[in-house]
Amino acid sequence: xxxxxxxxxxxxxxxxxxxxxxxxxxxxxxxxxxxxxxxxxxxxxxxxxxxxxxxxxxxxxxxxxxxxxxxxxxxxxxxxxxxxxxxxxxxxxxxxxxxxxxxxxxxxxxxxxxxxxxxxxxxxxxxxxxxxxxxxxxxxxxxxxxxxxxxxxxxxxxxxxxxxxxxxxxxxxxxxxxxxxxxxxxxxxxxxxxxxxxxxxxxxxxxxxxxxxxxxxxx
Length: 219
Known about the structure:
single chain, 219 residues, alpha+beta, Immunoglobulin-like, two-stranded parallel ribbon
């Protein structure tokens, strides 16, 4: 599985559905393109000056291009990955409808093309301990649940799914500096015309809501 995108933003369109937007795809592509240009410029300049070290810089540029150019192509052809969530924050014990969406900008999709993707819900607990002058951080993955969903193409490539948030493992999202609980949903397309790179969305999980037990009224 390829490395995922880590940064996500949030906006709420008029439909009331919360949209989480994964932004790092574009940052990696643009930053990689700049790095290739710099390595190539330095390499050519060194060769012109008579230094064979320029070959090393050109080799590094070529290796970087193998990784970056497919992502740059995807960045130019597709909008940033989106996760449309019916309800956000999610709650422990809930099953929330959601959709993974990629909208093309430089390609035309044929209607009805089958799609599939693997979804991976992860909850990590992080604790930082200080012992004298030493600092130690421990991370535990308490939820790691995977499933596959399917969809089709129309104006956009859309894969609907249901996010099952367990109530028997994992705590609500919080960050107290030395202690943190973080939930993420990683999506990796498996089939169809959409890019295969993984997208990781930070999601907020709230405590489960249960009505207070009723008490018999006094006669």
